[in-house]
Specification:
Elements (H helix, E strand, L loop, with lengths): L2 H8 L10 H10 L10 H11 L3 H12 L4 E2 L2 E2 L1 E3 L1 H7 L25 H14 L1 H6 L1 E3 L4 E2 L11 H8 L3 H13 L2 H8 L3 H9 L8 H12 L1
Antiparallel strand pairs: 1-2, 3-4, 4-5
């Protein structure tokens, strides 16, 4: 996607192919205008039934991934991943934009506030729109945008926009994401939290005790 195409899809900025401050602001506004509606017990139950698990299993992932709320200040909670942006763009912004593009994962460099993380996302989108939206994880289930096709979306921008609409949209993406990985689905169904954590969060899951936290959250939810 070009900058001009991005601006056209945003619909609130002049289409001139120049990604200046107005375009960055429009990117953030684009992810702020959703209704942000909450999830319902019925939706939780429906998702669990679709996955063939007890509802406590879905609630466990939601609790651990959402860290308290799927939305902050009218936008989905995000974590921008500079190493994924670097990978997606072939490292071409590593030198010019070292705060949003570097080759090796380093969680110590993550900004603490959502405002700062959205600044990173908007800056990345204005450099490389598809890669920018793809390089953040969103919402209550913290699914990385690069998984957009696994979640039934045509591109990472559509995925990010739907994540900004409601927790029901986020839950729909979660169900599709789990179903797209047979190993992950079977692990969830049998309560194998080590495999779930590894497939869902990556091989560094143990650093944050994801498997232990998921097991504990499931027991609380049950």
């Amino acid at each position: 996607m070009t900058i001009a195409e991005l601006q056209q899809r945003l619909g609130t900025v002049t289409v001139d192919g120049v990604a200046g401050p107005a375009t960055k602001a429009a990117v953030i506004k684009f992810l702020t205008i959703g209704p942000d509606t909450a999830i319902t017990p019925t939706a939780f139950a429906s998702a669990a039934s679709s996955l063939g698990v007890d509802v406590s299993y879905v609630k466990a992932l939601y609790e651990v991934e959402s860290t308290g709320s799927p939305f902050v200040d009218g936008r989905p909670v995000i974590l921008f991943e500079p190493h994924r942006f670097s990978h997606a763009t072939g490292g071409r912004f590593d030198g010019s934009h070292p705060d949003i593009s570097y080759p090796v994962w380093d969680p110590k460099k993550y900004p603490a506030s959502q405002t700062a993380r959205y600044d990173q996302l908007a800056e990345a989108v204005c450099l490389a729109p598809d890669a920018g939206f793809a390089s953040a994880s969103y919402g209550g289930f913290q699914i990385l945008g690069e998984n957009y096709s696994r979640c039934g979306c045509k591109d990472s921008m559509e995925f990010a926009w739907l994540e900004s609409q409601s927790v029901a949209d986020q839950l729909d993406h979660f169900v599709l994401f789990i179903k797209s990985d047979a190993v992950l689905l079977r692990a969830l169904q049998r309560g194998d939290w080590v495999t779930v954590a590894k497939r869902y969060n990556g091989t560094a899951y143990f650093r944050h005790r994801y498997d232990v936290r998921l097991a504990q959250a499931q027991r609380r939810a049950a």
